[in-house]
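re: ur question from yesterday

yeah so i grabbed the chain u mentioned. its 489 aa long if i counted rite. heres the sequnce exactly as i have it in my notes:
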Amino acid sequence: MSYEGLNVARLLLPAVRWSSEIGWDGYRDAIEQGLEMGVGGFILFGGPVDEVRALTSELHSRSRHALLIASDLERGAGQQFRGATPLPPAAAIGWLDDAAVTERAGELTAREARALGVNWIYAPVADVDLEPENPIIGVRAFGTDPDNVALHVAAWVRGCARGGALSCAKHFPGHGRTVGDSHVEKPTVRVDRAALEKDLAPFRSASEAGVDSVMTAHVAYPALDPDGQPATLSTRILVDLLRDEIGFEGLVVTDAIIMEGLTEGGSEATASVQALAAGCDVLLYPQDAEAVIREVQAAIGDGRLSRARVEDALNRTAAAAEKYASAPEGGYGGDDDRRWALDIAVRSLRVCRGTPELPRRVRLEEVEDDLGGPWPPYPRDAFPASLHAAGIEIADDGAPLVAVYSDIRAWKGRPGISAAAQEKVRAITEAHPDATVILFSHPRLAHELPTARHLLAAWGGEAIMQQAAVAWLTGMQGGLVELASGLDR
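ran it thru and got these C-alpha cells back, copy pasting raw so excuse formatting
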C-alpha cells in the first residue's frame, strides 16, 4: 500500500475564527500552514463582511486547487457574518408552513454566502425535533413532523442550489431523538429500525432534491449498527444505508472531529482514519492537521485504510470544490432582503398566553440564561435599540417588560430554562401580574414560566428576533429595517 501522489491534506477543513480584538490574526499560522499543506478548505466563524470577503479572496487566489470555504449558516449568512442578512431559526420558518418561504431562505443564504466567498453551507438541519429534552437541536430543526420537515429540507436544498452554493443535510441519520449532546459525549438512540424511518425521512427527501453533501452524527444507533459505533465511524450507516439504500452519491463530511462524541477521549487522528475507512470524505475542524495527515498516511501505508477509499474521497472533494470555485461575487445585506427576513420573523412569533402589550414607558428586565461556556451569547443590544427606535422610553420607573433569553447552547446540557431564571421571572410577574414577558426561545418552554400571564415567544435570542418582537408589539415593522441594517454593520 502507498500514499504517494495522494494529497490527503485535501480531505481536511481546519477552522478559522474571527476575533473582535485581533481579527484573523489568531489563525494566521493555521491559514499559512493549511495553504502550504494543501488542505481542502476552511470553515469560517464570524467576522464583518468586508473582512470575510478579503480573507476568502486571498484564500481562493493563493490555493493551488479549488477550495471549499464552509460555514454554519443555518440562520442565514448573517448568523456568522456581520452585515449580511440574518434569518429566524429553522423552527420559526417551519412553523410558517410555507415551502416557498423556506426555499427563498435557502436561496438568500446561498446568494449572500457566495458574495462573501463561502461556497459550502452547513445547512439545512434535517433532524426532526422528536425529543423535547434534546439539549442541542430544538429550534434548529424545522419541526416535529417528519413529513413536514422533509418538505422544508427539500425546499431549502432547492433554494440553496438556485443561490449557487453547496448544501449540507445534517446530522445523518438524525440527531433529533438524543438527550445528550455529541459535543461532550456519544449519545445513543435506542429505538428500532422502523421508528428510525421518521428520522431518515428528511435525509431521503434531501437526497432526492439533490443535496450536495451530508454531515454525519457522532451518535450511536444500535438498530442500524449493533456494534455501537457512532454514525461517523459506521460503514453500515454510511455505506449500506446512506450510499446503497438511500442512493446518496455526494460528499460525506464529518461533524467536527474534535467533539467528544467521536473521539471519546482518544485521538482525533485515530478517529479520522476510522471515519475515512467508514465512508466519510471530508474531516471537519481538525485541531492538529499535521498529526491527522501523518496518521492517515501511515494508515494507507500499513493497510488500515485503502488507497482506493482515499482516492474516492479525494475525487468527491475535488468535484464539490470545483462546482462553485470562485472568489466573492454578488451583493449582500440589501434592504429588500432584510425587510423580507424581518417580515417572516414577525409572522413567526407566537402568543402563548394572554395579550402581550407594550407600554410607552417601560423598565426593561432582562433575564439572562445564556451566560457561560466557551462563546458569548448573541448581543442583546438590538432589543433596547429597537424599543428606542419605536419611540418607547426605557426608564427605571416604567412598567416592567421582561425579556427572557434561553437559547440552545452546546455547553448547557439542557434544553429548558434554568431554575434561577425561572425564579427571576416568577418574582417579577407575581409583583407585576400584567407585565408582558417575551421568551426568546422555543414556545414550548412557556410552561416553565407559569406566572407569566402575557407571554410572547420569539424562538431565539438573535438580533433579528429581538427586532421582530418590538416590531410585533409596536406595528413598526417597516421602520425597523434601517435600524436592523445599522446594528448589523
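noticed a couple things. The two ends are 53 Å apart (CA to CA). also The first strand starts at residue 12 and ends at 13.
anyway ttyl
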